[in-house]
Specification:
The chain is α/β, with parallel strands linked by helices and 267 residues long. It contains nine helices and seven strands, in the order ααβαβαββαβαβαβαα. Helix 7 links the parallel strand 6 and strand 7. Helix 1 runs antiparallel to helix 2, helix 1 runs parallel beside helix 9 and helix 2 runs antiparallel to helix 9.
C-alpha cells in the first residue's frame, strides 16, 4: 500500500466499491450466486488496485501468436529484455519494465516474477525517459496459445491492468479468438483500450489506411466505438512516437487506474 491518503477521485471510486459491496450484502440470496461471486471478485480487484495508488500506470501488451508484441515491448522500452519468437519461454510468465518509480508492491500484486522485472531508467538516460516515469509496461503470454496456463494468465491480468494495448497483425486482426473471446466482453472499456496494428511495414503504403479502417470497423461491430487505433512497426519504429505520446499523457494525468476502475464498477 502507498501509505498516503487517496485523492478525491480515487476516494470517490473506493466509496462506490463499498456501496456495491453493501448492496450485495443487502440483496442476499435474491441475486444469482454466480453474479455475486463475479461481482465480489471484480470489486476486490478494483479496491486492491486503487489502494496501491495511482502513481503508477499499468499498461499490458496483449496479442496472439506472431503479433510481435514482445518485439514491440523491446522497442518501446529500448531494451532487449522480452523473449522474442522461438526464444519465447515455454512458461506462462509475464515480463515487466518499470520506468523509475519503485513498483514492487504493484508487481507483487500482479504476480510478476522478480527475475522478469527490469527498470528502464538509469543515470545515463538523463531526462530522456522522464515522460514515462511511473509507467509499468507488461508483456503478457499469447492469448491464443495452445497452452491453457498461458491463456489463464491473460484472463487473470486483463481485468487488473489500467490500459489494455491489443497488438494485432495484418494477417490475424479479424481472429475470432480475439473478438469473441475478449473484445466483445469489454464494451464500456473503450477509454482503457488501445489497438495497435503492428507490422504495417509489411503492408503496401496504399493499403495501410484501408486496413486500419477495417480494424476500426470490426471494433465497432464488437460494440467498441472510438477506440484509438494506430498503425505501427516494432521493427522499423513507425508509429512508436505516437504510441509513446499516448502512454506519456496517461502517465502524466495519473488517470489510467481511475478510468479502468470506473469502467469495472459500471460493469
Amino acid at each position: 500500500m502507498t501509505g498516503t491518503a487517496p485523492g478525491p477521485r480515487t476516494a470517490a471510486l473506493l466509496a462506490r466499491v463499498e456501496a456495491l459491496h453493501a448492496a450485495l450484502g443487502r440483496a442476499g440470496d435474491r441475486l444469482p450466486p454466480e453474479v455475486v461471486a463475479a461481482t465480489g471478485t471484480s470489486l476486490t480487484a478494483v479496491r486492491e488496485r486503487l489502494e496501491l495508488g495511482v502513481d503508477h500506470t499499468v499498461v499490458a501488451l496483449v496479442g496472439g501468436t506472431g503479433s510481435g508484441k514482445s518485439t514491440l515491448f523491446n522497442a518501446l522500452s529500448g531494451l532487449k529484455f522480452a523473449d522474442v519468437g522461438v526464444r519465447r519461454p515455454t512458461t506462462s510468465r509475464v515480463t515487466a519494465c518499470v520506468w523509475a518509480h519503485d513498483a514492487s508492491a504493484l508487481l507483487e500484486w500482479l504476480d510478476v516474477d522478480p527475475d522478469r522485472r527490469i527498470e528502464r531508467e538509469s543515470a545515463l538516460d538523463g531526462e530522456s525517459q522522464a515522460d514515462l516515469r511511473g509507467l509499468v509496461l507488461l508483456d503478457l503470454p499469447d492469448h491464443d496459445s495452445v497452452e491453457p496456463e498461458h491463456r489463464a494468465v491473460v484472463d487473470r491480468l486483463v481485468p487488473m491492468v489500467d490500459l489494455l494495448v491489443w497488438v494485432v497483425d495484418p494477417q490475424k486482426y479479424a481472429d475470432d479468438a480475439l473478438h469473441t473471446g475478449y473484445l466483445r466482453h469489454l464494451v464500456g472499456h473503450e477509454g482503457a483500450m488501445l489497438v495497435l496494428l503492428n507490422q504495417v511495414d509489411t503492408v503496401p503504403q496504399g493499403r495501410r489506411e484501408e486496413l486500419l479502417a477495417d480494424v476500426a470497423r470490426l471494433l465497432r461491430e464488437d460494440g467498441l466505438a472510438g477506440v484509438t487505433t494506430i498503425g505501427v512497426s516494432a521493427r522499423t519504429g513507425e508509429g512508436l512516437i505516437e504510441v509513446r505520446r499516448v502512454l506519456a499523457a496517461l502517465v502524466e494525468n495519473h488517470s489510467g487506474a481511475e478510468v479502468r476502475a470506473t469502467a469495472e464498477l459500471s460493469d
